[in-house]
């Protein structure tokens, strides 16, 4: 019997269910929710100002059939924008790494897109796309998401080990061989880091674009449900929708982090976990 218990505990330890990385955030979250619940009860704060977590959870269960399909639509916009941002960002970064003239010509425009508030240009983009609202929302999310990939990947492509670069020059490697065997492997950690940032920004861009578009009907995303709930003073539903968006953002970052760790393995110093 004791051996069976020890075996179960060993398996749980391997799965890291009880590791500090897992337990600490859960405990902090429980304490915050408990303090929130008690604080609202003590202060008798009205529901239309700040609902209790228990009320938000009830609204989440009650309106699940409305909120979940809307969340899936927002997820589709996020995923499509993220994939386009990853591919276009990588291609532009590779192009800029081939020539300083190209980099100096294109990089300022990437900065312009990054620094331009998406809420200012989203209405114009929606007008341009006319009845194709999905494409307009994807474009807005792409604008927000693609700059970190360009910036990180370009930096990685230009951050070469001088010794390895001289070695490739010594063996008269072609530009293509240098790109494929030296620049891209060197830039891989930076590219994956950009993906982790871009994943969350894709979701933010999708939600902001949905707020600006204000489209309803069966193709409305989670942001539209938040707008309608706010207009109707259904604050628990609005918080429930916000909770779903938050969970989705955490899941996106976690998945991308796991993919990054899996791709890099143990060959890159940044992915190797060390005990403090």
Automatic annotation (TrEMBL):
Keyword Ribonucleoprotein found: no
Cellular localisation: Cell membrane
Membrane topology: Multi-pass membrane protein
Transmembrane segments: 17-36, 66-94, 106-128, 134-157, 203-227, 239-259
Entry keyword set: Cell membrane, Membrane, Transmembrane, Transmembrane helix, Transport
Entry keyword Cell membrane: yes
Domain ABC transmembrane type-1: 71-257
Main location: membrane
A Pfam family matched in the record: BPD_transp_1
Family, similarity comment: Belongs to the binding-protein-dependent transport system permease family.
Name the record gives this protein: ABC transporter permease
Taxonomic path: Bacteria, Bacillati, Cyanobacteriota, Cyanophyceae, Oscillatoriophycideae
């Amino acid at each position: 019997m004791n051996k069976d218990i020890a075996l179960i505990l060993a398996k749980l330890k391997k799965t890291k269910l009880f590791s500090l990385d897992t337990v600490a955030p859960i405990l902090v979250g429980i304490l915050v929710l408990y303090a929130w619940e008690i604080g609202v009860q003590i202060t008798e704060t009205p529901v239309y100002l700040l609902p209790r977590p228990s009320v938000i959870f009830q609204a989440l269960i009650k309106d699940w059939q409305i909120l979940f399909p809307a969340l899936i639509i927002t997820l589709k916009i996020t995923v499509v924008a993220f994939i386009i941002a990853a591919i276009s960002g990588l291609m532009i970064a590779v192009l800029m790494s081939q020539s300083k003239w190209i980099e100096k010509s294109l990089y300022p425009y990437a900065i312009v897109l990054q620094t331009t508030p998406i809420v200012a240009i989203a209405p114009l983009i929606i007008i341009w796309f006319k009845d194709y609202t999905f494409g307009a929302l994807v474009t807005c999310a792409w604008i927000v998401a693609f700059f970190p990939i360009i910036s990180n990947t370009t930096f990685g492509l230009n951050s070469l080990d001088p010794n390895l670069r001289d070695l490739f020059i010594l063996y008269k490697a072609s530009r293509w061989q240098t790109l494929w065997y030296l620049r891209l492997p060197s830039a891989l950690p930076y590219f994956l880091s950009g993906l982790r940032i871009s994943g969350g920004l894709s979701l933010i861009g999708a939600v902001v674009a949905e707020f600006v578009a204000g489209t309803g009907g069966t193709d409305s995303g989670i942001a539209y449900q938040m707008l309608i709930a706010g207009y109707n003073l259904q604050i628990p539903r609005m918080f429930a929708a916000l909770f779903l968006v938050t969970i989705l953002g955490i899941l996106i970052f976690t998945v991308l982090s796991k993919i990054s760790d899996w791709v890099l393995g143990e060959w890159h110093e940044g992915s190797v976990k060390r005990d403090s």
